[in-house]
Amino acid sequence: SNTAELFGTLSLTGKTIVGTEVYVNTVNVTIIQYNFTAVAEAMNLTVLNLSRGGTATDSEILAVRLLNDTNANGQFDTSDGQVGPTINVSASSTYKFAGLTFQIPTSGASFLVVINTNASSIAGGKTLNASILGAGSIESAGAVSGVNITETLTTTETTAAAKLVGNLSIVGKSLVSSSISLNAANVSILLLNFTALGEQINVTALNVTRGGTAGDTDVLNLRLINDTDLDGGFDNDDTQIGPTINTSSSGNYTVAGLNFLVRAGETKSLIVVLNTTGSSGGKTVNLSLNGIGSVESIGNDSVVNVTEHLQSTSSSTASISGTLTI
Fold first, then answer.
1. Of the candidates 145, 123, 100, which has an alpha carbon nearest to the alpha carbon of residue 10?
2. Which of the 8 DSSP states describes residue 54?
3. Alpha carbon distance 40, 106 (integer Å)
């Protein structure tokens, strides 16, 4: 009679990790987790071909890697080691991980697909998904039998395409001195530098928080000034954007209705200015953006409300003092 050769099986199930949005200029974005199950014998994995879908290209997606998700938690941890090469250039949208020497034990193994996103000026609004298109995309053999295995694949494509979204950073600088006179006009308090990456971003509102002991009767005419020459000072050529705000809500000034456009790769600046009154002597004041909820902005191409990155967006505290005339 004929002798039948016995060999194991290898199955693969995917689990989407990436959310609906991926920001440009971001490292170590986990896209999908692949869970391998080997039955009857361990399996030697030698090739895995990953296909990229959506409208994103090699210009936007970099450093595609496979990581051994050692604790199978679906997260990129420092203990997760890389398997195979880092790939920056695809072959017709396919990343070919060849020459692998990874053995999948009968207890199973998990891989993560991790990428970096580039700060390409045209990235915003492009889409990305990842998949293993079929058993022909994987090469594996039984560790004992040596037989090339036809793998069983389940849900090996991300469930929905993620959208690439631009990045907006806001870096502040205090402009105010340690003291401000009574009845002072056009006092520059805080400089805000906006830098956009990946797409043009439209800043539509800022929520400025007042600190110190000054109240609405002590400071007036809070305004945003477009620092058109980027010199960090309020000059005659600089223009106001948005309304003048005289009344706060518990120390918060909402300057809405803005149309402050920051092009990809560009830095633009706003100066927050105010006036003091004649009754504000002895009071103190500072201004700040207190977090990402203090800014409202939207990507021009992605049409997504952007999560901004804020740094040093608080001014120093100044004392409001009178003048003595003899």
1. 145
2. S
3. 7
Confidence of residue 1 (pLDDT cuts 50, 70, 90): low
pLDDT at residue number 196: 97
The string of DSSP letters for 208-273 reads EEEESS--TTTEEEEEEEE-TT-SSS--TT-EEEEEEE---BTTEEEE-S--EEE-BT-EEEEEEE
Interatomic CA distance for residues 125 and 55, integer angstroms: 9
270, HSE (Cβ side, Cα atoms, 13 Å): 27
**144 φ, ψ to 5°?**
-100, -50
How remote is the C-alpha of 93 from its chain's centroid?
Answer: 24
Residue owning tokens 């058993």:
135
In the predicted structure, residue 105 carries a pLDDT above the cut 70? yes
Q: Please write the tens of the pLDDT for every residue from 221-262.
A: 999 999 999 999 998 889 999 999 999 999 999 999 999 999
pLDDT in tens, 153-192: 999 998 889 999 999 999 999 999 999 999 999 999 999 9
- Phi, psi for 293 (deg, rounded to 5): -70, -5
Q: Which amino acid would we find at residue 118?
A: N
CB within 8 Å of 241: residues ≥ 6 apart = 224, 225, 226, 258, 259, 260, 270
Please tell me the number of Cα atoms within 13 Å of 279 on its side-chain side: 5
The residue behind tokens 């970099």 is 62
Whether the predicted model's global pTM rises above the 0.85 cut: yes
Tell me the chain's radius of gyration from C-alpha atoms: 28
Q: DSSP letter at 176?
A: -
Identify the residue whose tokens are 């697909």.
Answer: 113
pLDDT at 121 over 80: no
Residue 159: the pLDDT is 82
